[in-house]
Amino acid sequence: MDYALDPQQLRDYRRQGYLFPLDVFDVDEVTAMRAALAVAREDAAAAGLEADLPALLRTNVHYLLPFVCDAARSAPMLDRVASILGPDLLLWSAEFFIKRAHSDKIVSWHQDLTYWGLGETDEEMTAWLALSDVDVESGCMRFVPGSHRQAILPHRDTFADNNLLSRGQEVAVEVDEDDAVDVLLQPGQVSFHHGRIFHASGPNRSDHDRIGLVFRFVTPNVRQQVARRDYAMLLRGSDNGGNWIHVASPRRNFEAADLALRERVEREQMVALGAGAEQEIMRVF
């Protein structure tokens, strides 16, 4: 089955800078992923990683958990991504965004590409997979339509305690909240967004955790411009450009070699993320 986007969806993405909701995974598949996440928590505890687990889930989790890679490379996901980015696809990063029930954690208005060292590229896209109900009460994302057509704008670092971003970064221009669109998703649905679109999210006032699994896809043409090198996982097609060090999918949860590789990758990526920061950066994304 071909899951490619239709022409109207492509026009909407290019005009708005986002596209949602996309029905990518069914109820059984979401249930299986939630179960795999629960097993990962158990495996982390058994391996003495329980204290480190929030950070391990928060950045580059595709190095550690096979089910994350399986979700990223599934045809219902990749066919749609390929409609926008083309046939050669790499996974640059994956992470869980989990807002606990009754949490005041927020994400301030920002553009993703600001601190990644990947430049102004149009060949990067984020896919945000809902593994729970995602609505205004639970702190859904919000997009400003068309804001991706701007360049990367100046941002300021707040380092606010309630901000899920590494630097509490926020775009240094006024954002009209009335222009924003709420990204409402049901479990298994996905939103796509461009790396320059203004987006944010509010606190979780609901009685359940808001769980998102986020994938950052790039083409082989994208390259790291700040750090010395960068790493990606080839999911489809080919990469002959030499811009990326290829990594393999993990075979089991939290293998020692995979943990060591992830740590090495994060040291490299920290060069880009921490450029110009007034405080030490403790998280990669």
Based on the model shown, name its key terms.
about 280 residues; alpha+beta; Jelly Rolls; globular
What features would you describe in this structure?
- The protein is of the alpha+beta class.
- The protein has a single domain (16-273), classed as q2cbj1_9rhob like domain (Jelly Rolls).
- The protein is built from six helices and 13 strands.
- Strands 1-9-4-11-2-12-13 form a seven-stranded mixed beta sheet. Strands 3-10-5-8 form a four-stranded antiparallel beta sheet, with no helix packed on it.
- It is globular, with a radius of gyration of 18 Å.
- The protein starts with 6 loop residues before the first helix and ends in a 12-residue tail after the last helix.
- Residues 276-285 have low confidence and may be disordered.
**For the report, how would you describe the main beta sheet?**
7 strands, mixed
The CATH superfamily turns out to be q2cbj1_9rhob like domain
Q: What's the SSE pattern?
A: HEHHHHEEEEEEEEEEEEH
The strand order across the widest sheet is: 1-9-4-11-2-12-13
CATH architecture: Sandwich
Low-confidence stretches: 276-285
Shape: globular
Task: Tell me, rounded to a whole number, the average pLDDT.
Answer: 92
Report the span from N to C terminus: 34 Å
State the total count of DSSP E strands: 13
Approximate helicity band: 25-40%
Number of domains: 1
CATH topology: Jelly Rolls
Task: Please compute the radius of gyration using only Cα atoms.
Answer: 18 Å
Multimeric organization: single chain
Portion in strands: 15-25%
Helix/strand/pairing category? alpha+beta
